[in-house]
Q: What sequence folds into this?
């Protein structure tokens, strides 16, 4: 006597392929905007491509990993890389702290102050980086700056010292970046059921404990987004550094990888070496992002 096996339900192929078709337009756009430039950047990094090759005076030569060998053997690369990592880490932490604090503040103030704070943050976010950096330079000007006049000091050049210059540029970067974190986390906090927060308040939880024990676990997926975005933005900061330090500061003391790549490519005419720096930056950001996502997955957080 034979028994019939239960029928195995299989998803129709149409259902499986539907998401792929929906993703196709975005994939085409991203491929055009990102994949092709990345391919060209990688190709340029393995070529001897200088001003002579640009003008057609000499033929372009394939040099393999020679640009990378030269880059990794340069002591300045490691110095600039260290400065870039330190600067980006400080900016990311400060941006998250300011954005999260103001997001919580938005939930605790009345409608009119909330509207004013949101408009002020959006204005800071909407200001072009060049314009915002120039305004901050006027505020901290050595002779006519409002800050020096308010402090009652004369002749103080805020951009002369390396660490003071990095701190000032970092403040501008945070000023430009915190609105994204603030609005994103505020939207996430507003999605938390009020009953949960009210229960925590009845149990006597402080504002800090409520934020750390209730809000942060719920906001973990959003925090993953803002952390990754902040790392990418702050690691490749160019405009604020270039404008405020006038190309990298005195004797290049405030160089970051992005500014240094620009100098090598367009000031020194070493386009292949500049492209190699860009590829190294891309690899570093990719590795950091993957490690961060892997850490979140290991902790059991849904993404």
A:
């Amino acid at each position: 006597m034979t028994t019939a096996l239960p029928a195995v339900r299989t998803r129709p192929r149409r259902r499986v392929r539907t998401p792929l078709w929906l993703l196709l337009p975005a994939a085409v756009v991203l491929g055009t905007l990102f994949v092709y430039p990345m391919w060209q950047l990688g190709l340029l990094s393995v070529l001897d491509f200088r001003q002579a090759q640009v003008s057609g005076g000499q033929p372009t030569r394939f040099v393999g990993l020679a640009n990378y060998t030269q880059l990794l053997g340069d002591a300045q690369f490691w110095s600039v890389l260290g400065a870039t990592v330190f600067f980006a880490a400080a900016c990311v932490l400060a941006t998250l702290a300011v954005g999260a604090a103001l997001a919580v503040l938005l939930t605790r103030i009345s409608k009119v102050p909330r509207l004013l704070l949101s408009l002020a943050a959006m204005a800071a976010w909407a200001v072009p980086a060049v314009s915002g950096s120039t305004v901050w330079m006027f505020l901290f000007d050595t002779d006519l700056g409002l800050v020096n006049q308010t402090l009652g000091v004369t002749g103080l050049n805020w951009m002369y010292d390396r660490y003071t210059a990095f701190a000032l540029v970092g403040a501008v970067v945070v000023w430009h970046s915190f609105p994204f974190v603030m609005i994103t986390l505020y939207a996430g906090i507003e999605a938390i059921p009020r009953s949960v927060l009210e229960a925590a308040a009845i149990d006597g939880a402080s504002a800090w404990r409520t934020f750390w024990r209730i809000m942060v676990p719920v906001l973990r997926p959003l925090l993953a987004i803002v952390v990754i975005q902040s790392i990418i933005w702050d690691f490749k900061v160019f405009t604020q550094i270039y404008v405020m330090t006038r190309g990298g500061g005195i004797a290049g003391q405030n160089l970051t990888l992005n500014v240094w790549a620009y100098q090598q490519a367009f000031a020194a005419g070493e386009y292949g070496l500049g492209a190699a720096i860009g590829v190294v930056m891309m690899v570093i950001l990719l590795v950091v992002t993957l490690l961060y996502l892997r850490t979140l997955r290991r902790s059991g957080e849904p993404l």
The domain at 30-298 is CATH 1.10.3720.10 (MetI-like fold). The chain has a mean pLDDT of 87.
